[in-house]
Amino acid sequence: MAVPKRKTNQARKLKRRAHDALAPIRYSKCTRCNSLTLPHSICDNCGTYRGRTLLAVEDF
Ligand SMILES: [Zn+2]
Q1: How far is the CA of 23 from the centre of ligand 1 (A)?
Q2: Is residue 7 part of a domain?
Q3: Structural domain contains residue 58
Q4: Ligand 1 mean position to 45 CA, how many Å?
Q5: Ligand 1 mean position to 18 CA, how many Å?
Q6: Distance, CA 3 to ligand 1 centroid (Å)?
Q7: Using CA atoms in the order 43, 47, 48, 54, what is the torsion angle rounded to 10 degrees?
Q8: What CA–CA distance (Å, rounded) separates 22 from 42?
């Protein structure tokens, strides 16, 4: 098994982890009801995707 020759110092470790941050979740707006939805997915509020109604959503 490959074994590191030298100990990784703190600066090197932190530089490597500079790119590990999680990106924030991005939302897109529904074209029919203007609520926030995840991109490329059916709207939870009205059940449409790209102008077509694909899910019957019960109104409360
Ligand atoms: Zn909608």
Answers
A1: 25
A2: no
A3: yes
A4: 5
A5: 37
A6: 54
A7: 130
A8: 24
Q: How far is CA 43 from CA 8, 9, 25, 28, 60, in A?
A: 47, 48, 16, 10, 16
Q: What is the pLDDT of residue 58?
A: 73
Give mean pLDDT in consecutive 10-residue pieces for the chain, a chain of 60 residues.
95 97 94 93 91 77
What is d(CA 59, CA 33) in angstroms, rounded to the nearest whole number?
14
Domains held by the chain: number = 1
Q: Is residue 18, in this structure, part of any structural domain at all?
A: no
Domain span at 49: 27-60
Structure tokens at 24: 């924030």
Rounded to the nearest whole angstrom, what is the distance from the C-alpha of residue 6 to the centroid of ligand 1? 56
The answer to the question of residue 15 being in a domain is no
